[in-house]
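Project standup — Tuesday

K.O.: blocked on the structure for the chain from last sprint. Re-posting the sequence here as requested.
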Amino acid sequence: MTKCPHCFSTLTNTDFVWVCRTGRCEQTPDREATRYSVAPVRSGQIFALSKPPEAKSNWAPPHRVDCPTCNEAMDDSCPACHGALLPDWRAAQATCIAMNGARATGKSLYIAVVVKQLQRLAVNLGSTMHFGDDRTRDVYREVYERPLFEQRGLMAPTPRADTSSSYQRDPLIFSLGMIKGLRRYVVLRDVAGEEMESPPERAGHLAFLANADAILFMFDTLAVPSVRDKLVDLIPAQLQSGGDPLVVLNNLLRVVGNSNPRLGVILSKFDALQELRNVDDVTWSAIMSNSGAAFLRDPTELAPKYDEADGLQLHEEVRSLLYKLGAAPIVLTVQNSHDGRAIPHRFFAVSTLGESPDGRQLHSRGIAPYRCLDPVKWALAGAGVL
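H.V.: unblocked you, prediction finished:
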C-alpha cells in the first residue's frame, strides 16, 4: 500500500474511486473533495467500488473504468479526497513529506535546493530522479529553480492556500526510480508560514499534515534577537522577519491532532550561527569553534544511507543549541507535549545557501548547501526506502 500524494491518506486495496475529468460531464458538488479543499469543489461523474466481502483472494478492481456519460476513461483517484493518482501509482511506494514553519524560515529555499540534492542521492542509490508529472516540473522550474539558480535571487513568500496564486495547493511529486524492488516517489507539500501563524477556522486543506510520513518544521536562527544583534556587522541585514515559531508549532500540533507523524525540527540558516565563532563572545566563540562537533561537518552526501549515529549526535547538539538560543519552549513542546503523547522527533541543522543573502540577491560566492539532505534521508529511512 502507498499514500495519496494530495491528502497523504493511505490507499488500501479494498476501496477505489474513479472521477471523470474530461469536462464533458455535468459538474456536481463533490463533498469528499470539498472536505480537503479551501473552497467548494465540483466534479464530473464519480464511480466508487469496494472489494466485496465474499471476494476471492485474487480479486482485483477493473483496470479501466469508462464514464457512463461521455464514455471516456475516468481517472483513478483517492477515495478520501478524490485527488487524481498517477498511472500505476498504487503499485509504487510514496514517502510523503510536509514542510512547516513560520514566515521567512527558508522553507521554499530548502525545497529548491534539496530537490537538486535528491537528484544526486538517486544516482548514489543506482537510480535517477525524475519529475513525477508535468505540473511538478513546471512549478519547480518557474517558482523554485528560475528565481534561485538562474536569477540568483530569493523566491517570493509562499502565498496562502486561499489565494488565486497559490501553487502549493497541489503536491510536488518526484520519482526516485526502482529502489529495493519498488518504484519510489518522494512527495513534498508546503504551507505558507502566514497561514500556520493563524490557521483558518476551516482547515481541511491542511489535513494532509496529520497523514505525513514526516513533517519538517523549520526554526529560523535569526529569529532569536540576541543572535541577530551579535551578527549585525557580520552578515547582511535580513529583509523579511518571521512570526513566532512557538505559535506555529503549537498550531501545527493542533492541526495534526491525535496522529503522530515523525517531526524533524530544523535549525535553519545555520551559516549565520556559524558566524558566532567570530564574535567577541567567549562562550559562543568556543561553542561554534569545536572541531569535534557534528554540526561542523557534513557527511550526508558521502553515502546514500542515513547515518543514524551521526544523526543522533547532531540531534543532541542541536537540542543543546536550542536551549542556548533561548528556544527551550520549542524543545519542551516536542519532548513533553501538553496532552502527554510522545512525539517521535529529531533535531537538525541546515544551511540552504551557505551564506546569508544580501537583500534579495544571493551572496557573490553562490550557493553552498550544508546538511540539507539530512532531514529527507531521515524521513526516507523511516519509511524503509534507505
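K.O.: great, moving the ticket to review. The chain has a mean pLDDT of 86. DSSP finds twelve helices and 14 strands in the chain.
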